[in-house]
Amino acid sequence: MKDQLEDLKQRYVALISALSDEKALSEARTKVLGRKGELTAILRGLKDVAPELRSEIGRLANLAKEQLEKMFTEREAAVQAEVEKAKVAGESVDVTLPGRRSFFGRTHILNRVTDELIELFGGLGFQLAEGPEVELDYYNFEALNIPHDHPARDMQDTFYFSKNVVLRTHTSPVQIRTMEKQSPPVRVICPGKVYRRDADITHSPMFMQIEGLWVDRDISLADLKGMLTVFCSEYFGEDFALRFRPSFFPFTEPSAEVDIQCVICGGSGCRTCSFTGWLEILGAGMVDPELYRFVHYDPEVYTGFAFGMGIERVAMLKYGIPDIRSFYENDIRFLHQF
Ligand code: FA5
Asked: Are residues 288 and 145 in contact, defined by beta-carbon separation less than 8 angstroms?
């Protein structure tokens, strides 16, 4: 019996050391220590052993059981550790691979220029005001002194929703909306999108304007000219020449159009400035007293100036962009330059 026990122990010690698979180890454990296992059978058979040998054989059998259990546990842990190690090695990072680049969005150049203009005019005392892009004919035309069937409507060909509802052609309706709500003094800027039937390298069917309006006592054309000159030198630098040309708008009298020397060609003439050396950035003038009738201001007491600036034109001049269409083509390579 002792030899049988010794033989069993030797066999399983050798087997346990040789096995390197969790499943095989579990099967071997069942085969020797399980309910019907070889060692379990020996322990069960102890009752048939001669009484004088029983305790000795019993002690040896229990010792063998303890040893084998310990060996199985240790080997199983070692095999499991090796499996884990191999798994981690298989998943290891290849440090030579290029990293995955995160995508960072950024503010569109036109929104950035708009924010810069809001800040600059904010510093000159102008508050922000806004109005709807889908506008009533009354605010877009009529209250700006452009009655139905007046030829001045042809200056801004627009998109009609219905007879009285249009996509606004300029930000000037916000002048009326603001004056309706507020008594003088009024000093606001109103940025936003506007729409016209217009398309070439300096004209887009949807574009952005920023309107300025200052109504108070004793506001004169000199204030308008001074304000725009300050704006121009602050935003573009002292080197850029500014030019006021007499013009006509039904809602200002007198009216002017303001050009800035073309940065693309330095004033010598190119496609962007239509070979004139100048690019028009805004229309402006003294608020026509006729408008005060619509908003119940006293034209004997108040005067004011207004201007409407094209934001794309400002961005084109600031960054030397020759074609207005680049802003709306969604070419990330273009947009990421700014
Ligand atoms: C107006 O829109 C007037 N509301 C401006 C104004 C406001 C005058 C207040 C007097 C008092 P005009 O149509 O000229 O004016 O447009 C103003 C500016 O918008 C232009 O100088 C130009 O910079 C820009 N602009 C006009 N049409 C387009 C277009 N299709 N695409 C891009 N920019 C344009």
From this structure: yes
